[in-house]
């Protein structure tokens, strides 16, 4: 499914969250598609099951996935994600980055072009990496 960087300073559960979120946002995982079980993903990635569970729990809290008792975790419909708190966190980060870009001399045109590139990537299912 994907690889994690064990040398990264970013915690494994956050890397896992980011990877799954990207797969959902870019359409590689479809609505109501089942995610691998905690046990399966844990053995595939050789990661502690508690780490996988923590990532799944956070993604569920953010509205990207939902769980069905005894069945597993599934991709949530778009109207369930992102929650308002996630949107506000993203807005704050975008504002910080755009302020820095303006400070470094980026023009409105360059920022608009970047936005349009992001829309095209999302439509084509291309991740940001």
From TrEMBL:
One Pfam short name: GntR
Query: Which InterPro entries does the UniProt record give?
Result: Tscrpt_reg_HTH_GntR, WH-like_DNA-bd_sf, WH_DNA-bd_sf
CDD domains the record matches: WHTH_GntR
Question: Which UniProt keywords are given for this protein, alphabetically ordered?
Answer: DNA-binding, Transcription, Transcription regulation
Q: Is Nucleotide-binding set as a keyword in this record?
A: no
Q: HTH gntR-type domain: from which residue to which, for each copy?
A: 10-78
Q: What is this protein called?
A: GntR family transcriptional regulator
Record the organism. Answer: Paenibacillus zeirhizosphaerae
